[in-house]
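User: I'm preparing a small set of examples for a lab meeting where we compare how different chains pack in three dimensions. I only have the primary sequence for this one, and I'd like the structure in token form so I can line it up with the others. Please keep the answer compact; I'll paste it straight into my notes.
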Amino acid sequence: MGRLSLVIADYDAEYLQNFEKYLITYHPKRFDLASFSAAEPLNAYLGESHKIDVLLVSSKMYKEIINTEKQEIVLILSENESAAPSGLEAVQKYQHMDRLISEVIRLYTLCSRKECPVYGNGGTQVVSVVSPAGGTGKSSIAAGCSILCTGRGMRTFYMNLEDIPSTEMFFHGDSRQSFSNVIYQLKGSSPNLWLKLEAARCIDAGTGVHFFRPAANILDMNELTEQDISRLLFEFRKSSAYSAVFIDLPTGLNERNSSVLKYSDVILMILTPDLRLQNSIDKFGKGLEMFEERLNINLISKLMPIMNFSKKQINCSRVSSYRPIAEISDHSVSSGTKAFIRPVENPAFLAELNKAVNHFLPDKKQEASSMDRMAALWEGTEGSLGVSASVDRTAALWDGATASGAAAALGNEAAGLWDGGEFIV
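Assistant: Understood. Below is the structure token output for the 425-residue chain.
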């Protein structure tokens, strides 16, 4: 992946330390960083033959710099609203770090004459989430999958392409840009498209999921063409910045959906046991067949149905011609006098959804842990006893008879799903 050489200089050593920690945590492969809290070593560094894309320097230290000719761009790290020196752009020092970094990248792509190509090692999994009808909990499942994968240590992106996005029901970010900026950049031909997309994205502080804020004007979504979608997904795959990208699609089938499904690795189709939806499900299936014929691509093989709002006492093993890979209980209604809890904040919902995620994104850490436990069971024990214990334990852990039973088993295993806003399992 193309890395930007960033030099930050400020007399505040504690600020520099926190800045470095943030970049290491959230942008480990984006920047080559050098920091200076004194003017003398900074000038010595600038005098050497170092490649520097961005020099981010405080207004006080800028006055002590001897040479700024070798830097691609110079940005002033400003503590107030005062104007930057003539010909330079300023970035506010005291703001959310995510917004600051996005602003630095945005100004770099605007001011730099240099192209910075970004290529990864591949491996980005594009997962589309779609439903034949509204009210199936599609967005909760798409958001929940994103949260679960981030909790597994995967770098995950949630992308909402609905006509009226529900993104802010799940994720919140501090960015001035939105999906309107993304659409604008996709229609342009200037270089460094991926850097401009990075500048537009947000990071949810509670979950660590990356996302775009909804378009400033919902009518902008009508401007998104198949060519735009193709280019957008190509950039995500080329950069390999994310292990998984979950795309929350509009209900039903339309041109936007067909464009995304064409480039998806997995298609999660969200169903419910509501008999009134059977007709919609049948029509959706016929529509997929028509898309397959028109696009000359096999979509059915990518399809993974999930039964949401499942009534465990009712046989939901098959809906129309589809057999769900997983069933998720109805967690939409709170009990007693407790306040309503959104599904993505409900450990029982996440526990059941986690089993569905394992079908298309196996948890490598969980697999390794399972192997370690199996080895421990075998060690010093007869083989038959070890196998028996493992089978009994696995059955108890993943018993899907009731949501509470599954949640309780997982809770005993991992001491709870949520701890301080971070997913552990």
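A couple of notes for your slides: The two ends are 29 Å apart (CA to CA). Residues 368-423 form one domain.

User: Perfect, thanks.
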